[in-house]
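In response to reviewer comment 3 from the previous cycle, which asked for concrete evidence that the modeling workflow produces usable outputs, we include below a single protein chain processed end to end. The sequence was submitted unchanged, and the resulting structure tokens are shown without manual editing.
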Amino acid sequence: MIDLLLLLMAVIWGTNYSIVKFAFQELDPQAFNAARMAIASAVFLTIIGVLRFRAGAPASAAPDSTGLDSIFRTPARVTARDALELTALGIVGHFLYQYFFIGGLALTTVANSSLMLATTPVVIALISAVFGQERVGARHWVGAALSLLGIYIVVGRGVDIGGEGLRGDFMMVAAVVCWAVYTLGSRRLISRHSPVGVTGLSMAIGTLVYVPVMWPHVRAAAWDAVTWPTWVSIVYSSIFALGVAYTIWYAGVRQIGSARTSVYSNVIPIVAMATAVLFLGEPLRLTNLLGATAVLVGVALTRTAPQAAPAEPCEP
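The workflow returned the following structure tokens.
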């Protein structure tokens, strides 16, 4: 059952790229993102609050390690240090990450976006090595080199210097760095609190910063002219991409481990490119296939190398 759910997760995240890009035809990208982040944060906080209320236990009580409560509910009290770290994570991992991701996706292609984000485990491993958290071996370096080669094949050849596509690609690079920092910075909190609790609280904090900053985009959007397919896109991206898929990911990590769970995220770029070809009419060239192969092989080498950093989800 968990394997089928993880395949569903890959489909949700893979199709989300095209669904989000479709919504940009009617809505300003940052206005769209503000709406979906607000909805997702409200859902996360509601579920966490309901489970805490139903548990009927003090905040310091240990959760049931086998039930949904252990996935959603934060068992320990949030200390002052926890609050500061959650604030930092919310700004880096949700405010800045979402700004760069949505801005980049609006300017570049789904293929470029999904392949760049697929290199996140490579970036995490290299940052871990720089700060002495992990020793980088030969397999890591080979994996990193292959991933960079794949990105160059897809993005670098025939690039239009100063064009919108290049700016979008650079924003995607910034998004990858933000998510890598968020992943590494959340390790202590996740050891104290439930992973989805950390995600939900940090997302809510990031949303509290994101919405006011992007309010001019929200106010300028013609919400009364938004058609029902775009509203479906907002709800889908909020509930499924930011809610259901995260839940499946962490359930998989708890049940079968991060190494086996992370294999399924390699499916995401494939689904993303296929749906972009079918529904957005993006061209599928030989360079896309060659670049995707190099990126995915490089990521696989990094993830299977000894002492590799734990894999974390990276969602649009």
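Confidence is low (pLDDT under 50) at residues 58-69, 307-311. We consider this sufficient to address the reviewer's concern, and the full set will be provided in the supplementary archive.
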